[in-house]
Each structure stands twice: as C-alpha cells, then as structure tokens.
Specification:
Chain lengths: 406, 243
Amino acid sequence: MGTTVETGPFGHLAEDLADLQLPTTDAEEWRYSRVADIDPTRFARAPVEPALESISTARATIDDLLGASTQPPSATVVVVDGSVSAAEAADPVRIDVHAVQTVQTEQASPNAFALLNERLCSAQVTVTVDAQARVVAPIVVASVVTTDGVVVAPRMRIELGANSEATLVEVHRSTGPSDSLVVPVTEVEVGRDATLRHVLIQDVSVRSDVVGSVTARVEASGTYDTWIAAIGGRYARTRVDCQLLGRGADARLVSLYAGGGDQMRDLRTFQDHLARDTTSELVFKGAVDGRAHAVYTGLIRIHPDARGANAEQSNRIMTLSDDAWAESVPNLEIENNDVRCAHASTVGPVDADQRFYLETRGVPTEVAERLIVAGFFDEVLDRCPVPGIAEAIRPTLAELMSGDRT
Amino acid sequence: MSELVIDQLHATVGETPILNGVTLTVRSGEVHALMGPNGSGKSTLSNVLMGRTGYHVTGGTATLDGVDLLGLPTWERAQAGLFLASQYPTEVPGVQLADVLAAAYAAAGRDPELVPELMRDEADVIGFDRAFAGRDLNVDLSGGEKKRNETLQLAVLQPRIAILDELDSGLDVDALRAVARRLEAATSGPAALGVLAITHYSRLLQELHPDTVHIFGHGRILESGGPELVDRLEGQGYSAWVA
C-alpha cells in the first residue's frame, strides 16, 4: 500500500473554470435535468488538508451507516472534502492514492462534470484486488463532505483481477447541512471471471447538488453487481454506464431512489452489450413526495456482435403527492435479432386498490401509504449484498417520505 | 349489542344509479344473507358502505351504533366496527399481514403486540398455514387461501358487523366449512358478530345458516324472509323476482 497525495491550490474557482462549458437542457441528455441551476464558479475549492475534527466527524458519519453491518471492512478509505485522509488495506486488496489518471475509452461520451472532477480532484483512489483473490469482508470507500460552499471531486478506480471476488461499499455523505457541489467519478474494471458487488450510497446533504458517474467495464464471464441508494442531495444525478465487453459478461443494476421537498433525483443507466451471451438485469424503484421530481432514463444497446444477449430493465416510480413529478424514459437499440430484451416502466401514485384494502382493515390512510411505499422498496432493500445497510437506510427513506429531512 | 342500520340508501357509480333505496338492519349475532343475480348492485352496496372512491351516495343513511358511517373515511368506518371481506382480496406486494393488523390495532389504541399470537391462534383454527402471515399480503395465494386469510383478519380485528362479499367464491368444500365454522363461532357469545353475507349462490348458506334472507335486485331489497326463501330461489331462480 502506498499513500501519496498530490493536491491543487486552494482558492476560488471563477477564473479556473471560466472556460468550462457546462451542458444546457437543450441537449437531449440533460433535457429534464437541473443543470441550469448549477454554477460551479460560486463555490470554492475544498481545503486540501481537512481539519482533524472534520475527519472524526466523517468517521462517525460512516459508522452511523455501516455500524450495523456485522463484518469489519477488509479495507477502508476515508475521503474528506475530496482529500484522502485515511487508507487502510492489506493483501490481496491494495489502495493507491495518486494524481488523477484518466482512461480514455472510445465509448465514453464527453461529460463536463467528469472534466470538472478531473480538474478539481486532488487525489484519485485506486482499489486493486489481486487475481484469484476472494475478499469476503467489504471494502469501504467513504467520501464525506464537511465544508460548506465547496466543490468536492472524489475520484475512484476499482480494478478486479481475473477470477477475483470482492464487495465494495462506496458512500457519499455530508456531516452537516452543507451547500456544496459533489461531482464523483468512479471507474470499474471487472476482470475475466471476476465478481464485483458494488454498493453505492449517495446520501449527501439535501442542500448540496450531486452530479456523479459510474462507468463499469466487464470482461468475459465477469459479473458486475451494483446496488445503488440515491437518497441524498438537492439535485442529484447519477449516471451508470455498464459495458459488457467479453462473452458471458453479466451486470445487475439494482437501485432505490427517493426525494422529498424540492429535491430531484436524476438517474441514467446504460446497459451496453458488446459481446455474445452477455446478460444484464436492471431493477430500479423510485419515489417522490412533496414537490420533488424524479427522472429515469435507461438505454439498452445490443451491438451486432452480441448474439444471445439477454437484457432486462424495469423502472418504477411512485409519485406520492399531487405536486410530485416523475418521468421514466426507457430506450432500446438492438442491432442483433438473436437476443432477448424486456423492459417495463411505470410512473404513478400509490395503488388506490391497495390503499383501500388496508383502509378497510382500519389502517389510517397515511399509515397505509407508508406501508405500501415501504413494501415497494422492500424488493430492492432485500437485494442489498451488505447486511445492515438496508436497515440503516430505512429510517432515512421514512424521513424523506414524511418530509422531515432537512 | 351493535346494529348496522341502512335506511333508503341511494348511490350512483358515475352518473348511473346502482342503489335505489336499500333498507336493512343487521344486529349482533344475526346472520343475514343478501342474494341477487350478477349486476344487481350487491357489491356496490358493500363498496358504498365501506366508502370506496368512485361511489357516490345520493340519498339515505347508514349508521353503526348511531355513528354516521357515510361521513367517515374508510379507515374510520373500519375502526367504528365495520369489516369488509373482499370478493377479490387485493395483493399488496412487500406488505406483511402482521404489520397491517398491528397498524390497525395501534390506530384503535389497542396493543399491537397482541397481534402475532392472535394471528397464530386464528391461523390454526381455520387451517391457514402460519407461514402465510409472514409473506406478502395475498400475493401468490390461491382463491381459497385468500378467503381463509380474510377470515383470519376478521377474527383478529374483531369487528362488530362484517360484510362478506362472495366469501364462497374460490373456496373448496373444506375451506368453506372451516371459514363458516369460524364465522358461526364469532356470531355467538357476548361480543357477537353481526353478518351480512352477500352471495350469488346458496352454497355458503348451507354452511352459514342465515336467520334472514334478502332477495336483491335493481339496487334494492325485493323480498325478505327466512331460510325458506333460499329453497324458493333454488327452485325458481331469480326470475321469480327479477324480470
């Protein structure tokens, strides 16, 4: 394990980002987004050496989420305001902290926020799991925002060697009600016959905006199994691109997302089948209350070479109030006939028959709705691969839905 | 002693009048059978009494022990002591029966911690696999299991008056007997249940032994009498009442 930190200067961003072109809602990809509300230049760079107090608060915030899980982590990285404050690992897991390295891939589309991350990230974390290794306890990489008015740009790369297996929990949280901009970038490489279970918890302050991306590349017979809870942030966008590059590569994308108040959840997924007999399954469930908005856009693409591919995509969003709004946009691009693709997409309020049935038992309307929404998310919570996390998230979900989250 | 008093109840679905003056009183310990052909408005009566959205009362009253049911939201009608056993119990994915009954107990100011044991006891009484209690409500249950589940809920909630909407549909003979025996037990004793059994066929009534039989057609009661009405119905069909 080596720890070297290279950092940029602390200072205001207006001049540094003068040439950065953020997208507008005219672009199809950003059509429903709130990108127009985001002005990175109004923030400062995060401090490169966070206060000790911030670090201990960050630790407490992580324990709060993961404390219920029974296993101690096999490796831990704590990132405070984008700077790595601790990195602990032992073979066969390696953690390297180094200057930003960008990997250019032909599929990656230009993304202004990934560029912003590249410019502002003080140190990238690379997690490597050796070939043939079986890592039982989860690797935890937690990024915590402790400062108000900064841009936080965590950047991580996860590399699983051939035939290895690991679980990585990536957490983004805030220690207080900070108004910041968080632009995480995560790159994943799953080697041949390897399995990565990637749990991503996006739970930053509801006063902060988040625009993040995950790009996973999966080699032959590899499995990328991701479980995402997008429950934090004011405007929070997470994009997950999954490239199935080798024969028999498999991806499972399971997510719950929820917002209340004036928040917005913006999820984009890309199940990209580039090889034969590749499989992907996506199960997303969202709920919006108050005046919150949610948009889900998912693309399944089957390349001409991907004979025998099997792709499924299901997204369901519940709108829990008259002022909540949601849009679900599934897309298919199929260039081979010998494939199986299925997609389902629904947006709507709590089912009136279900609510009525519970009411006829004497359950008050609000309690009935709460039970139905909790039940709706159960399918996703039950699939979380790390014990304890689902239980830690349930109260946050309940707070979001009851509008108590500030 | 409780009583459900329905007086000259009129209701529409959309613009269409479905109930045209229903008058009926059900008291503790009584078993009433409401029989009528398909489309006569039987199920509408149960939905109107329970306050389902889409049904509009245009006249008349319905009270339970003097409480005006029609002015209450559905859950408060249930808390007032009215229970509806659905013809087609709704599947509620991810929601467990124990949580629903505990929530109903809590809303009534009763101890929710009593629910698990009551559920176990009642499941055994009606031959309902205890394991179903921990599964998603009505999901993947057979027709018969759903009706046993409805009966279990009735037994745990202990309402004053129960409307059974086509309780016999989907029930095999064994399940029908088990359910009917449990209902019979509920209709006796100090806190006796009053039953309004809505049914199309006489099958349930051979097990449930109603005190009073009402022939229902055109959205109202056409004739009321004793169990002998069932025999007449068997012989002549509904055409004796409904042209």
